[in-house]
Amino acid sequence: MTEDRRALLQAVLALLAAGFAAWWLPQVLELFAIINATVYVAMALLALSLALVWGFGGILCFGQAAFFGLGGYAYAVAALNLPDTTYAIPIALGVPMLAAAALGYVMFYGKVSDVYMGVITLTVTLILFNFINSTAGDEWRIGAAPLGGFNGIPATPPLNVPGDPGTALAPEQIFVIAVACLGGCYAVCKLVLRSHFGRVVVAIRENELRAALLGYDVRFHKLAIFAIGGLMAGLAGMLFANCVFVSPTMFSLAYSGQVIIWVMVGGVGTLLGPIIGAMLLQALTAWAGTLPEVNPSLILGLVLVVAVLAIPRGLQPTLAALFRRRTP
Amino acid sequence: MDLALATGIQALSGIATLLLISLGLAIVFGMMRVINLAHGEFLMLGAYSAILAVEAGINLWVAMLVVAPLCVGLLGVVVERLVIRRLYGRMVDTMLATWGLSLALVGAVTMIFGNTVAGFSAPLGSVQIGAYSTSGYGLFLIAATLVLLAAVWAVLRFTLAGLVARGTMQNAGMAAALGVPTERVYALSFAAGAAVSGLAGALIAPMSGVVPTMGTAYIARSFITVITGGASMLAGTSSAAGLLGSVNTLGTFATTPVLGEVLMLAIAIVLLRLLPQGITGRFFRRSL
Amino acid sequence: MTALLATEGLTMRFGGVVAVDDVNLSVAERELRCLIGPNGAGKSTFFRCLTGQYRPTAGRILWRGRDITGLEPHAIARLGIGIKTQVPSLFDGLTALEGVTLAVRRKHGEREAKRRAMAALERLGIGELAEAQVGLLAHGQRQLVELATVVAPEPDLIILDEPTAGMSAEETAGTATLIREMNRDHAVIVVEHDMQFIRAIASGITVFHQGRILVEDCAERVLADPRVHDVYLGRPPEARMAVPA
């Protein structure tokens, strides 16, 4: 019971922190910084989605960016076609979730093993990347939305005030929504993991055979957690589409790779770690990008190699262990 | 008739390219159960070392066939020492570390050479088949792939080193108990795989153009070929390359190059769904 | 009366090897049955067919007369079959209590599940391990935690694959007592090859040899059967006369 209470407390604290950030940051940051901060939050949400799927579901997905991209594109296409962009939200969440469910069905019900799962998720991401990249011609359009090939869809309309299509939300308001989404998703993850369903998911990660021999349907639980992860990644993609615009790079291996690095560095099996990892490494990449002589990939790559070799458990567990040793 | 021949050669050269770019990965995966995600960058470095050697005035063929495998093979020795060796048995960690390595190599090469296309033109001119012409270099690639495949097979089949390698591949614990220094076998396998990748990178360079990010274009394809092939490194990779290469070429003929590749990847997924252990998990199980 | 669990012509082939060959076995409610046989006799393959880990090549598996061939392991477990694997299969990252609670939680609410899980741990005499992380326990303790996981949901049938593997003589005797006690409320199938243990539980015995059933009888007669001695000790038939059974 105390564990449950602690989970509830953490969820509430997360929401409070998110609320504070949403209230305070727009007052002190400039417009460009606000948009940038929204991108950071979207990326943190993407990291959180993989943290759930990989860290707790035990499913190493090399293609989390695919759901991120699908969410973004689904939002952009729906927003261009619908009179009120509010209605694009369920589509932006539903498409990646269904895609994740379909892919999960192939993998989990086909009993594909770990490594092969990595291959399949990677391949699907590549297929999407190649496909979207090749939709440059005018014949590639869905309703009023041209897919635009490698140029993406620069004219993605932002969310509007619900019920009032004429009034688009300001970047500050989008930032508030993004922070609310991140805080909300974190709280939901915490609560899901404390629920019976979440415990079964963790039990499956620990020992698939034993979970099955206790009567739990391994395939279904993996599918469900994978679909939830897909939905959250889609939400991240939608937020990203609202502050930048959608383009095929959202599906790229570089994105998928970055998410894995964020989670790995933050700590596989934790929720807060990957969020912090995403923010820190994004900042690091941005900083490296300003250095004239250094390529950011070099730094990111070296960080990953060193992280795997030196702190295989990631930042959060390593720091927590250090802290515990200091204060017995 | 001429069309059929030209198409056939086209398909064969597609298969050969796929096989060529996958073989190094297959050797490392088959021997050590290590998936080297920096494999694409090994190809890229093979291509760059050939270019540098040519610019330094070394004969083109020597640059491609000797310098490139040597350079990348040496790099393989270093990578094995510094990274791979510390992560044996931790498959996922190895994948992550080599992915990091891949990013770092792309970054480093971009810093040195810039993000521009380099390369050298294909030697050997073109060959006439009736009304159609095909590049002589394409034919050379097919031949080179066959020779390379035969060489790897012969080493594994007929030499003592090959016997030791096969033994270690079958049962590393037993090989170690018989006095085989498995660590050294692994180190050599990784270096050999890297050298083959370097050679492959140099060989495809005239066809593809060389950029720091060229590895990403190949890693997924070779990765999929190896995994679809399954446990046997030569039979598996050849059969998977044969199948996927044909699908790719025919798909490209029927539609566009992009859709051809999409079709190939889709077929690979369906195959993995039907044969979760790869092609050689079901067929040719006893082959190399 | 229909049997609790029965197989009809159950066969499992791997390529050219027939690991289980046309096996007809029937276990009644509350029965205690040992499946024995030398290494490679097909017991473990048979076990994996029963538990849904392998899909048999031919034949049927019946649960109270209903065909359950080819069901997934979780569906088989849901029928009311508790399964213990040879190498303890546990949730190493969880505490003993958490793991056992999961076993009962499917049928009961949180509070009741925890109570039953604790009761199961105490029944096996390891109540004090409730909060210990399973991955850190010793081998014998892990065996007991797994037994608690298996009995906690009160299954109708318990299938144990080599429960005494890696145990000392003392622990083996204790396990035999435990299994006889479990048998008071549940039917039990034990796959074993330890003869001491078989003597200690003294139940009905089915002897496997080369994938087939060689003998099926009560313990006394099976243990006295010269054919059983032959397959265990590998004596040729002509040597049988020389040595009194």
Structure, described:
The complex is a heterotrimer of chains A (328), B (288) and C (245). Chain A is built from 13 helices and four strands. Chain A is globular, with a radius of gyration of 20 Å. In chain A, α4 packs antiparallel against α9. In chain A, strands 1-2 form a two-stranded antiparallel sheet. In chain A, a hairpin with a 2-residue loop joins β3 and β4. The model of chain A has no long low-confidence stretch (mean pLDDT 84). Chain A has one domain. Chain A has 328 residues and is mainly alpha-helical. The longest helix of chain A has 27 residues. Chain B has one domain. Chain B contains twelve helices and two strands, in the order ααααββαααααααα. In chain C, α3 crosses α4, α3 runs parallel beside α5 and α6 packs parallel to α7. Chain C is of the alpha/beta class and 245 residues long. Chain C has two domains: 171 residues, Rossmann fold (3-Layer(aba) Sandwich), CATH 3.40.50.300; 65 residues. Chain C is built from nine helices and ten strands. In chain C, β9 and β10 form a beta hairpin. Classes of the chains: A mainly alpha (328), B mainly alpha (288), C alpha/beta (245). Chains in contact: A-B, A-C. At the A-B interface, α5, α10 and α12 of A face α4, α9 and α11 of B.
Unreliable segments of 5+ consecutive residues of chain A: none
Helix content of chain C: 25-40%
Global mean pLDDT of chain C: 83
Tell how many strands the DSSP assignment of chain A holds: 4
Radius of gyration of chain C: 19 Å
**Class by helix and strand content of chain C?**
alpha/beta
> What is the CATH homology-level superfamily of the largest domain in chain C?
P-loop containing nucleotide triphosphate hydrolases
